[in-house]
Amino acid sequence: MLSSCHCLGCKECCERCVGSLPWASLIATILLYMGVALFCGCGHEALSGTVTILQNYFEVIRAPGETLDVFTIIDILKYIIYGLAAGFFVFGVLLLVEGFFTTGAIRDLYGEFKVSACGRCLTAFLMFLAYLFFLVWLGVTAFTSLPVFMYFNVWSMCQNTSLVEGANLCLDLRQFGAVTISEERKLCTGSEKFFKMCESNELDLTFHLFVCTLAGAGAAVIAMVRTIILISDWLWASRKYCYSSD
Predict the structure, then answer these.
(1) What secondary structure does DSSP assign to 37-63, as a single string?
(2) Beta-carbon count within 10 A of 52 CB
(3) Per-domain residue ranges for the chain?
(4) pLDDT at 79
(5) Which residues of the chain are modeled with pLDDT < 50?
(6) Distances (CA, A) of 87 to 80, 95, 203, 225, 226
(7) pLDDT tens digits for range 192-209
(8) From CA 199, how far away is CA 121, in angstroms rounded?
(9) Which residues partner with 186 through β-bridges?
């Protein structure tokens, strides 16, 4: 490719190099990174804000020993977020490398479009991983919508309390499964802590962080769909060369 660029001018060489980049794979990878980064960063901070709200306004404390309480579940979710961030960073690099090796630059470098059976199998395996991660992100998106729904209910209660005078509303953590049935952790509109929670920055910030987390999960789903389409198109285009040599 460098030898051919010597015969061209600077403008033509740059146009050829830019035109041979795998723009579709590059955009899908950037969208995947943005979605995962938004999900992991906002999700981590939203979980930390949830811990602050539970401790400051509901007076929920950590259970002694190794009891599986809401704080332990939050810590587990944080570790899952760390794993997702590391895993999808590696997966994004693999997708980008796959995009470069299946773009027009490689075809120009090696002449005719050739692909081995081994390369086709590796690409099919990558497509299988992309489809598996797509299903995973669908589940993550559905799971992330639950705290958004919960915080929206809390926000609605705060709005209704300020609009309707004399409204008697209570927020019970047992309804959300945050505490056991035997524990009674609730806030009613007549309490001072309820008004402090509604006026606090923690509630508003945590709610918007969960919304951004949901948006990041949705962006990752779109990136996975785009990746599956790209890989399947390449496999379909190279089907008649599956027994060609490199």
Answers:
(1) HHHHHHHHHHHHHHHHHHHHTS---PP
(2) 14
(3) 23-145+203-241
(4) 92
(5) 1-4, 105-106, 109-112, 242-246
(6) 10, 13, 31, 18, 19
(7) 888 888 888 888 899 999
(8) 57
(9) 172
